[in-house]
Design goal:
single chain, about 400 residues, alpha+beta, Butyryl-CoA Dehydrogenase, subunit A, domain 2, Butyryl-CoA Dehydrogenase, subunit A, domain 3, 4-stranded mixed beta sheet, 4-stranded antiparallel beta sheet, 12 helices, 8 strands
Length: about 400
């Protein structure tokens, strides 16, 4: 691992910390520490206003190259940004999908026209995106998608038909990137396309899914001859898998350091509660808190090692492949720890309307951590086959 902070980097830290102190207050005070995992549906309009505030201050696209309108920050400065943002209680980013996933993908694979059309709106906090990957029959096994895209040569558009599911904030999004099958008879990862789909149209039906914790931040999305302009496919038909896999590499990039700072905030809240209610006197609780602290440090050093190993490689290298499995188990265990420290209060709701506390929400939401984004079973297969080079799991003959 080679990652250190220079005097210039520390000056950058002071700049972002001071800006957050001056601006994350007043009308934005109510959204500090809000909008994270399990809380994404809350204060969405306020968080959209915050995105525009960030854009005005030049704090969107900090890692984007300058020729695309970004700050061109070094890896070290990007790490500092995410650390200070989380430390200040910056709300969950409404523009994360666009800024952190769509934009780098368009920079790598998009046409000049696509870059000019979409990147400025993402940077300005004016258009928001959701992800159209999972389907009822294609969750962790993304290559099993069945949503179809057929090109209408007369109208010069693609027509989408099918269903996506677990689509976070689709009800609030302007655009969705969708992996769909461009060759009807193709199998697995072949014959796929990567499409940029406008959500506000007659052929799209968004249906919220109510979760265990009473929220509905993700949805089913149905496509019934939904239209996609001919120039809104990224890459060529049949290249969708390559584009989709590269995007997943961006998903596990430098923003993971910000995720870990959010985890740190949750752990600190749990430690404070244990001190207040006396749970910290229990040796087993103290040991579990220590284990959580060590696990978080392991995550941080592994992420920094991964990010600093090769600045030109943002793909799914061996170290990054293990990250999802590790953090999902750690976070689920943190939810269990929170409930055990709460004790009997864990079973009590403050008021009607399923009004959960932050730690109760944490516990319930972390039940899903080991499922979404690829189940733990699938993650272990990926580690075995792609990272360790072990034989593929036996498949039944087709």
């Amino acid at each position: 691992m080679k990652l250190g902070f220079t005097a210039e980097d520390e000056a950058f830290r002071q700049e972002i910390a001071s800006w957050l102190e001056r601006n994350l207050c007043g009308e934005f005070e109510s959204i500090r520490f809000r909008g994270g995992p399990g809380d994404e549906h809350r204060f969405f309009l306020e968080r959209v206003a915050w995105e525009k505030k960030l854009a005005e201050g030049g704090w969107t696209g900090v890692g984007w190259p300058r020729n695309f309108g970004g700050r061109g920050c070094s890896l070290e400065q990007q790490v500092i940004f995410y650390e200070e943002y989380a430390r200040a209680g910056g709300p969950g980013r409404a523009g994360h999908i666009g800024e952190g996933l769509v934009a780098p993908t368009l920079m790598a694979f998009g046409s000049k026209q696509q870059q000019q059309r979409f990147l400025p709106k993402i940077l300005a906090g004016e258009e928001f995106w959701c992800q159209g990957y999972s389907e009822p029959g294609a969750g962790s096994d993304l290559a099993n998608v069945s949503t179809k895209a057929e090109f209408d040569s007369a109208a010069q558009i693609w027509r989408l038909n099918g269903q996506k599911v677990w689509t976070s904030l689709a009800q609030e999004s302007d655009w969705c990137f969708v992996v769909a099958r461009t060759e009807p008879t193709s199998k697995a990862h072949k014959g796929l396309g990567f499409f940029l789909v406008e959500m506000d149209q007659v052929g799209i039906d968004v249906r919220p899914i109510q979760q265990l914790n009473g929220t509905s931040e993700f949805n089913e999305v149905f496509f019934d001859d939904a239209q996609v302009a001919a120039d809104c496919i990224v890459g060529q038909p049949g290249e969708g898998w390559k584009v989709a896999m590269k995007l997943l590499g961006f998903e596990r990039g430098v923003s993971t350091l910000g995720q870990q700072m959010l985890f740190q905030n949750e752990l600190q809240e749990i430690i404070l509660l244990a001190k207040q209610n006396g749970a910290s006197k229990d040796p087993s609780i103290r040991q579990r808190i220590a284990d959580a602290h060590m696990g978080l440090k392991i995550m941080r050093y592994n992420a920094m090692r991964t990010l600093s190993s090769d600045p030109t490689n943002v793909g799914l290298n061996r170290a990054s492949i293990t990250y999802k499995l590790y953090w999902s188990i750690w976070h689920r265990n943190l939810g269990n720890l929170a409930m055990d420290i709460l004790g009997p209060d864990a079973d009590i709701i403050e008021s009607e309307g399923y009004d959960l506390s932050r730690l109760q929400t944490l516990f319930l939401f972390t039940r899903s951590d080991t499922i979404y984004g690829g189940t733990n079973q699938i993650q272990r297969n990926i580690i075995a086959e792609r990272a360790l080079g072990l034989p593929r799991e036996p498949r039944p003959a087709v």
